[in-house]
Inverse folding.
């Protein structure tokens, strides 16, 4: 099994609040999500919470944090996670919902709420 360079870069940027235990759990979860024919661990195999955290971290410098409300920040992170997952799955909503760990109905509602067409 190989680990994609993007995953390694993301691991370097992530703050790892759970330290080594969290890293171990993330890797275990990602490896378990590999399909039989896959030999490379990529970003699509990582838990959604990692991507949500990274999208917040990466977009934070672009915004004035003092003006952002918690709801705005949460919506921004959710929107980014959904868009990333949609792109990764070729805009297949069933696969996107499965990847995000939510039902397809909830995905459609979230997309409508967040203005994603």
């Amino acid at each position: 099994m190989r680990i994609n360079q993007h995953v390694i870069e993301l691991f370097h940027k992530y703050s790892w609040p759970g330290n080594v235990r969290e890293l171990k759990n993330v890797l275990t979860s990602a490896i378990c999500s590999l399909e039989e024919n896959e030999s490379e661990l990529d970003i699509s195999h990582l838990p959604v919470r990692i991507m949500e955290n990274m999208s917040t971290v990466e977009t934070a410098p672009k915004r004035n944090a003092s003006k952002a409300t918690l709801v705005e920040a949460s919506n921004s992170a959710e929107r980014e996670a959904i868009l990333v997952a949609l792109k990764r799955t070729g805009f297949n909503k069933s696969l996107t919902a499965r990847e995000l760990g939510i039902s397809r109905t909830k995905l459609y509602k979230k997309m409508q709420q967040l203005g994603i067409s």
Observations:
- The first helix runs from residue 5 to 13.
- The mean pLDDT is 79.
